[in-house]
Predict the structure.
Amino acid sequence: VPGEPWWTLEAPFDDAAPPLERDLDLDVAIVGGGYTGLWTALALREREPALRLAVLERDRCGEGPSGRNGGFLHGYWASLPRLRDHFGDDAAVRLARASEGAVAAVRALGDDVWLREAPLLVLSAAPGQDAAVERLVGAAAAVGAPEEAVAVGPGELPASPAFRRGARVRDGATVQPARLVRALRRAVLAAGIELYERTPALSVDDGVVRTPGGTVRAPELVLATGAWSAGRPPLARWLTPFGSSIVLTEPVPELLAEIGWTGGEPIVDGRAFVHYFRTTPDGRVLMGSGSGPIGYRGRVDDRFALDGPAAGRAAAGLRRLLPALAEARIEHAWGGPIDVSTDQIPFFLTLPGTRIHAGAGYTGNGVGPSWLGGQVLASLAGGREDEWTALPLVRRQLRSLPPEPLRRLGGGLYRAAMIAAEEADERGRRPGLAARAGVALPRLLGLDVGRR
Ligand SMILES: Cc1cc2nc3c(=O)[nH]c(=O)nc-3n(C[C@H](O)[C@H](O)[C@H](O)COP(=O)(O)OP(=O)(O)OC[C@H]3O[C@@H](n4cnc5c(N)ncnc54)[C@H](O)[C@@H]3O)c2cc1C
């Protein structure tokens, strides 16, 4: 099936839970059965076992990005420079430390999820990417945590003529993402939490969720609808769906041994539309490119499951970044929508005048942070003020994105310009005037996206 993730072939869906076919009265209803909704349900159950809880999922749990992603599992140390700019040093470090808990939480789900802990390599593959690596290493040192991001030279990276230098970020791991969402779903069912699949929320108002088969009444509602939140006011102000695309090779363990990439390290380059790449236990290489498409008016359409140009960019990235794998056949390609926030950092809030709690904006790094998001949303829905609600992601002020059609047009111009600028940089050329102007566009609008 075009656009079907290999993850799902490797770990098929369990039988779907029955859809809702009656009215329900609950304490908390959670809309969305991806990682965020499922972690929220588990956190609530653990904290208050007597709560009446249900998760309502439009399709099947993991049909969205939670079953389609690259499986990079890390928190916020790799984002330290951005966090320092936005929140200051103390809050940035508090957030980075809090985000580390995701690995232990995933480990506690059992061996089934292919958790492999290995440092995340953030590397430069072009002159214009060197500064980002240096900023990351410098930021860790500046906050008194130099061990979190250590500078490494090309000799310590997998062999590639493209790799110039890197930072080894201690907080890193990979998982089989579909296995992770299956394990979370099973944990939810085992905890006695009601789960309704193929149950879309048609409307969500304070205290009431309408679905085709019944109405759910609950004083506390949690919206965990990921990129689909971009179509919903007021979240739409701060979110846009943006595609990420993946290609996966046949198994090539002998080529991985030749280039010395046998430790399972997840890797990202320094592109604004990042290349992310990792291996699988059977020696395949996954290469992702976070480079489009863009949703209009917050809509997630069929293009996101498989976008030819973005998959082509992922394949080109594979050939350039890992030329030793030139013979490796690409066997699978797929994509999905990521929920990009105005400043590429997620946000959590209670919608004004309601008890609807929402979180989104992971911007392509949600596998680990959705665990954190689950703790935050459980605190908001539980009416608690605690360490989770004190995190700087919660109830923060964000700038609004420009309105449509400016948002879509501006996003398209910026994407084309940035891709041209980054390709020129990789070829050792100076980007043209149009590309330089397009790259500056978000800054002119006061937006902190796609910074290099
Ligand atoms: C191709 C790709 C690669 C990625 N790679 C990585 C990576 O390597 N590492 C990383 O950290 N992050 C990665 N991400 C991002 C990561 O997958 C997400 O941040 C994460 O899965 C978000 O989980 P979520 O539960 O918030 O959202 P989702 O997984 O999107 O779950 C939301 C759920 O809500 C449901 N829903 C929507 N509307 C309704 C409704 N009206 N009623 C009921 N249910 C509804 C959807 O069906 C969906 O199941 C990637 C994303 C993509 C697309």
